[in-house]
């Protein structure tokens, strides 16, 4: 998750530095960027991620999870290089495309790697660390962007993907992937390393038992000669088809909830909402609250029913967004709201906190759990690509939507989406906490919700 931290800094970089880039103090040679250029800088990350999803999805099956995860460091290193040494808006366009390429790999591969190495009892906790580290990285950028220069921030954060690459080299490939490639001995060594098994009789028995379970799981898939030719026909089974459809809806609701757009434009939103707090300081407050929420998620995700956490957090996020929209509407109608100018910061902080507890991290935990192992790579790629396509539309046209229906209208739309997300989970998604992958697939096939 050091790579998740690095990606968080790349995503969070925009909020503190967008106001600088559009100001007369812009560090670029040609001066301030235009409003249109600013929306492209914001949204091109999603375009890079859309293409990168298929690249890393293919790579995960062809070269393995470990090699592909190592490769995600390269575009993030290049991103910070472009920011540090680029002097034109075109270089920033390239930088954001590269950041998107890295984001695609991280969003796809970190949950996939964690799902395949984790024990059932802690899979949810380990999976939710992804969003926690992503949020810590975002806060790092908010803080550094407020107190350090444009170039100094880039020079420092340049080191994170390099550190990840150096440290992750020692970790093994996932046992599941190795078994699918008929490398059973290597899979056994990997599992032994991951579980900390020694040569004692008890440990050897546990190793044999877990290996037998993995071998049975893989034997239920097509034989190894067909493993390399995964295609859309592999989604013919009811569980795979249903999992893909649920995944596509989940990632759509994740982005249409507006949380990613709100993070990209945090400082700008507070300035437009008329908050008394300095916009960059408000962004830091929100970033810190986001981390608290993410940490809360790691604590409760394996202690509470996933469905209950997702549904409750979705409904509360809807309430928070509705409150922020109502404040904005009253302000647009020239009602004196000076006495309640704390509402934008409080509401957005509450929304980010509650979404970080359940709605945002559980999307990726559930997605990685409900996809059958055979199609996890391709299915994850399709869902992640769709996520970035929706994300591009939301981030690119969020300013235009604010112009069209007002900030309050956007908040109300996001609120309705969060409400829909809770209802969708309640009706269509099975509980996954503490269940093996086989049990989850069985629940999908038999429409078991609890």
TrEMBL record:
A cellular component term from Gene Ontology for this protein is:
plasma membrane
Q: Which residues cross the membrane?
A: 39-60, 67-87, 93-114, 126-148, 154-171, 243-263, 283-301, 308-330, 342-366, 378-398, 404-429
Subcellular localization, as worded in the UniProt entry: Cell membrane
Q: Which Gene Ontology terms cover its molecular function?
A: sugar transmembrane transporter activity
Q: Which residues form the Major facilitator superfamily (MFS) profile domain?
A: 1-433
State whether keyword Membrane applies.
yes
Cited SUPFAM superfamilies: MFS general substrate transporter
Return the protein name: Major facilitator superfamily (MFS) profile domain-containing protein
Q: Which organism is it from?
A: Anopheles christyi
**What taxonomic classification does the UniProt entry list for its organism?**
Eukaryota, Metazoa, Ecdysozoa, Arthropoda, Hexapoda
